[in-house]
Amino acid sequence: MRYLIPLVVLAACATVDDTTSAPSLPDTCGAGAYTYLVGQPATALERVLIMDVVRLVRPDTIVTMDYRPERINFMISDQEIIADITCG
Asked: Domains in the chain and their CATH numbers?
């Protein structure tokens, strides 16, 4: 038991290598072309011609769980700001 306490203390002092990042997802829908819209009001979408499949997702919106790699998802915040753009 007395050997366990120093091991617990040493484990608490251990550092974690946090240099790994999440893998980036491929831009299968062309969302990268619209990243300049992030942070702008949702009404900015009215001035952009997007000839692809688009889905607007607002808070509390029920969406299907189907993944469509060609679909652009615009995530709209409570403040009606474009918060994120993803494929799927």
From this structure: 26-87 (3.30.10.10)
